Structure formats: C-alpha cells, structure tokens
Amino acid sequence: xxxMADVARSAGVSVATVSHVLNGTRPVLPxxxxxxxxxxxxxxxxxxxxxxxxVTSRTRSIGLAVSAISNPYFTEILQGVESTALEHGxxxxxxxxxxxxxxxxxxxxxxxxxxxxxxxxxxxxxxxxLVTYLHRHNVPTVLLDRLVDQPGNSAPRFDQVCAESAxxxxxxxxxxxxxxxxxxxxxxGRRGLSTTSERITGYRHGLAAAGLPYDERLLVHGDSESAxxxxxxxxxxxxxxxxxxxxxxxxxxxxxxxxxxxEHGLSVPDDIALCCFDDFAWADLFSPxxxxxxxxxxxxxxxxxxxxxxxxxxxxxxxxxxxxxxxxVHRTSCGCPEQSEKxxxxxxxTAQKGPVS
Length: 357
What we know:
By secondary structure, this protein is α/β, with parallel strands linked by helices. Helices cover about 40% and strands about 15% of the residues. It has 12 helices and 13 strands. It has helices at about 5-10, 15-25, 30-45, 50-55, 70-85, 100-115, 130-135, 165-180, 195-210, 225-235, 250-265, 295-315, and strands at about 60-65, 90-95, 120, 140-145, 160-165, 185-190, 220, 245-250, 275, 290-295, 320-325, 325-330, 340-345. The strands form 2 sheets. Strands 7-6-8-9-10-12-13 form a 7-stranded mixed β-sheet, sandwiched between helices. Strands 2-1-3-4-5-11 form a 6-stranded parallel β-sheet, sandwiched between helices. It is elongated, with a radius of gyration of 24 Å. It starts with a helix and ends in an 11-residue tail after the last strand.
C-alpha cells in the first residue's frame, strides 16, 4: 500500500508538502499541488483519515440530525447536504431525532462524540436541551428549516438556514380569496415549530390582505403528519358552515387532507378547493393537479453546508439567518382551469431581525 512518503517521492516534494495539500493546513503553489494530486491518483494512495484527524483536530465529517428522513422534503434536503459536503471533501453522519426533545439531545451528543467537525440540525418543537448542550460544548452548528427564536431583539446565537414560510402561505390565501372564497381553512403543523407559527402568521396576513376576518375555528393543527392532517381536515368538515377552501401546511398533511376529503365524498375542486405548502414529485399526478408552494429543498441543504463551512473557517463571525425564496406552482386544485403550470418566486417582502416566532 503506497504511503505519503511514496507520494512525496513521486511528486518530487517533501512529505510536509503532501500533508499540506491533503489537510489544507498551508497554501501550496498550484503547480506543486497538482503534481501531488497526480501522484496520489497514479499511486492509488488513500489517506489515513484517523491519523490525519489526530494531527489537524478535524475529521472532515459533518453530523446531520433530521427527523422524518422518509419525508420527501427532508429527503431532498439530505441530498443537498450530502452532495455539497462531498463536493468539499466532507463525509456525513446521519441521525434521526424522531422529533423527540430528549432523543434529539442524545443523538446530537452521539454525533458530537464521533468528533464531527460541525452539526446541521432541524430542531424539535422544544429544543431547550439541544440548545443548552450546543452552547455548553461550543459545537459549530447550523439550525436547518426550523428556527430557534431568540429573546427580544437579540441576534441569533446560531447560524440558521430555512425557506420562507409566512409570505408563501399568504400568497396561497390571497389566491383563494381572489377566486371568491370567503371561508378558507388552514391545516397547520405541530405546535412549537417555527415553521408552524410562521405559516399561521402568513395565513392571517393573507386573510387580512383580502379583507377577510380571522375565525379561529377555521385553523386546526394536524401535527405535521398524515394522520393528523386527516383528523384536522375532518374537524374542519364537521363545522356547521364548513370551509370552501383549504390550505395544508406541509406535504404529509396534504395526503391526510385528501384522504379525509375522499372519506367525506368531497371532490376537489368542485366541492372544496385545495392548495398546499410543499410541492412533491407526484403533486401534478393527482386529479386535479395540486396547486402548491415549492420549497428550494436541495438549496436549503446545500446552503446549510456552505454556512457551516464558513463557520468552521471563521469561528468568530457573527451568526446569521439565511432565508431562501419559495415558488408558487399554479395548477388546478384551487379551481382554476387547466393551463400550463405557472411558476412564480415568492420573495420575502418584510425586513426581519433574526427568526420570527
């Protein structure tokens, strides 16, 4: 098996230069660097990752803690994280916290004990133990998708990356109101999640912009899961005056809502219009095709890696929150006639100081 000394002899450089090329510990002239890389390729040299980590105190690995990995949204985020990590020479260790605060704390500790260089975490609805652990051990961390609120007007204590939530939901509500709907229900997500509270904020802003009153009976939580979405939709359909249109706040609850509508013998959009937050691969295969907000899932994952690598390079840089725009995908479940799909970016229009609650 070729050694680092073999690579050095083949490239005509010192062992120290080979080490600097492999570990990025010192700048190396482009020609010299290429000679080392060519020698590595020619000899089939494989670096000793364990030995390198002992020298550099880096393992070139990232820990990812994301619940519901089977959810298409998080699957696409995972793809973005993995491809960008590999592009920068990092491996990935993955754990599922199951949206349980205590299990979340345990899996994050396990990832940290595996000496990952940093963490990317989609926090649970109660991330207090998680935040305490990360602060105590000063772990470089990017919070993903679900943000952690900060007291008062203070800057965020962690880097955070997410898609917009409030403005896109307001866009869905405004679209439905523009079609003449006056009773628009919301199947909201799990209480305590920043995504849930932001989408509720967007729902209420959309109603206000359309001159419609907020009726608390038209907002039911579906716990961000299919079964919860089905139960929440059934609750809305049981009202004495049921909604004429629904907005579902994630893809899993959309499936549950469609199941409940079928059980009640209701047709979309003839009996009730439906728009959803989260586009997914088969959304345009339903009949009718689902009008949706598409999140930039892979971009969110990729951006989280880039922000984490920036943090590792500049540990003292002030934390920041990065929000990416969503896309309004106009199809036919809202009651509009069949036409070519229309894609519009939904930008964030209001300035914010850190994450919103």
